[in-house]
Design brief:
protein-folding chaperone binding, GrpE, about 190 residues, alpha+beta, three-stranded antiparallel β-sheet, three-stranded mixed β-sheet, protein homodimerization activity, 8 strands, Nucleotide Exchange Factor Grpe, Chain A, domain 2, adenyl-nucleotide exchange factor activity
Length: about 190
């Protein structure tokens, strides 16, 4: 702009400022909160359209990015849901699997080989069906270091030997996981 003064009131202008009056054709005066008049440039039609276009492009890009994030998030949730969809059924089947394991131990003590072989086949079929649905056993053994992230200590006993202090002495109940998620922690006894 060519003029150096900011006019607080349009009535203060004199006839000597006709040059400035011509320049004000491109400028409008607006009142601010204090009642003072401020000089604001008017935009040409092309500039206004360019500004509106930039605003709409920005709005569109933000909306598109938000939609892409939504698609990615829902896709991830759907995959996770499919992985754990049968979790309730598998958790309900774990006590049956535990009973089957205990039955196998007792049946293997009997002398009837045909009964042992038949129950063993059924046991393997059940285990294979559960494994095919994503069930995995959490590997915890006596002598392993106790980690609260992968096992649940139900009691502590005096360690039978010095090397078992702070380690797992016995596994009471097997633990299982579905994918990367542990659905039942193994119950263990630790040595102190």
């Amino acid at each position: 702009m060519k003029f150096k003064n900011i006019f607080k009131n349009k009535s203060n202008m004199t006839t000597e400022n006709t040059e400035i009056d011509q320049e004000l054709d491109d400028v409008t005066l607006e009142n601010n909160a204090n009642g003072e008049q401020l000089i604001v440039e008017e935009l040409s039609v092309e500039e206004q359209l360019a500004k509106d276009l930039a605003h709409e492009k920005d709005k569109f890009l933000r909306l598109f990015a938000e939609f892409e994030n939504y698609k990615r998030r829902t896709s991830k949730e759907r995959i996770e849901l499919f992985k754990t969809a049968g979790q309730d059924v598998l958790v309900a089947m774990l006590p049956v699997l535990d009973d089957f394991d205990r039955a196998m131990v007792e049946i293997s003590k009997s002398e009837d080989e045909v009964l042992t072989k038949g129950v063993e086949l059924i046991h393997e079929k059940l285990k294979n069906a559960l494994v095919s649905k994503g069930l995995e056993q959490v590997e915890v053994r006596a002598g392993d270091a106790f980690n609260a992230d992968f096992a649940e200590a139900i009691t502590q006993i005096p360690a039978p030997s010095e090397d078992l202090k702070g380690k797992i002495v016995d596994v009471i109940e097997k633990g299982y996981k579905l994918g990367d998620k542990i659905i039942r922690f193994p119950k263990v006894v630790t040595g102190q």
